[in-house]
């Protein structure tokens, strides 16, 4: 199996499971966030973040254009705002909007995996702009799929905390 195919297959599984969880969100709960702790995204913000956690960030790794990959833009944001506090993060207004954005990000991820190609995926190395070791382009893009997976799991726990009847099958995209 080729690296591009592995990325597509793994990404599709994460996007499928995320979409299934999105469909379980009660739109009255888009403003919900955990009551204890601080700097939590609302459910709507988390859905929005999921919808650009893989494809959008992959732009930077594949093209080198981190301004197109980030919000806020690295060139515009002061260093202390590169990771904005939760209250400044964008949200969605509906599940329908979140699902549309998620599908757009899935398509973008597929385009970027193809654009990167087998040779670059296997051999091109770089360090991410936020720090960390040099890794292959394949590893970076696979980590962006993992980024979506982390936030998908966060949404799963938000749904549990809201009293929704979800289980492990929902987390992995087989529930429903």
Descriptive account of the structure:
By secondary structure, this protein is mainly α. It has one domain: Four Helix Bundle (Hemerythrin (Met), subunit A). It is 56% helix and 2% strand. It has 7 helices and 2 strands; from the N terminus they run αααααββαα. Strands 1-2 form a two-stranded antiparallel ribbon. Helix 5 packs antiparallel against helix 6. It is globular.
**From the structure provided, what is the oligomeric state, counting identical versus distinct chains?**
single chain
Based on DSSP secondary structure assignment, what is the total number of beta strands? Answer: 2
Could you estimate the helical fraction of the residues in percent? 55-70%
Per CATH, the superfamily is dinb family like domain
What's the gyration radius in Å? 16 Å
How can the largest sheet be summarized?
2 strands, antiparallel
**What is the strand content?**
under 5%
């Amino acid at each position: 199996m080729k690296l591009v195919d592995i990325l597509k297959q793994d990404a599709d599984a994460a996007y499928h499971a995320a979409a299934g969880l999105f469909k379980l969100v009660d739109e009255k709960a888009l403003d919900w966030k955990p009551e204890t702790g601080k700097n939590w995204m609302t459910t709507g913000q988390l859905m929005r973040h999921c919808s650009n956690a893989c494809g959008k960030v992959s732009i930077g790794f594949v093209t080198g254009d981190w301004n197109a990959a980030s919000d806020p833009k690295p060139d515009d944001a002061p260093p202390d705002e590169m990771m904005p506090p939760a209250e400044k993060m964008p949200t969605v207004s509906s599940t329908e909007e979140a699902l549309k954005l998620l599908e757009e990000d899935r398509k973008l991820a597929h385009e970027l995996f193809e654009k990167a190609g087998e040779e670059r995926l296997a051999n091109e190395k770089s360090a991410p702009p936020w720090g960390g070791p040099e890794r292959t382009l394949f590893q970076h893009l696979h980590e962006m799929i993992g980024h979506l997976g982390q936030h998908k799991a966060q949404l799963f726990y938000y749904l549990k905390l809201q009293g929704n009847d979800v289980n492990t099958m929902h987390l992995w995209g087989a529930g429903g």
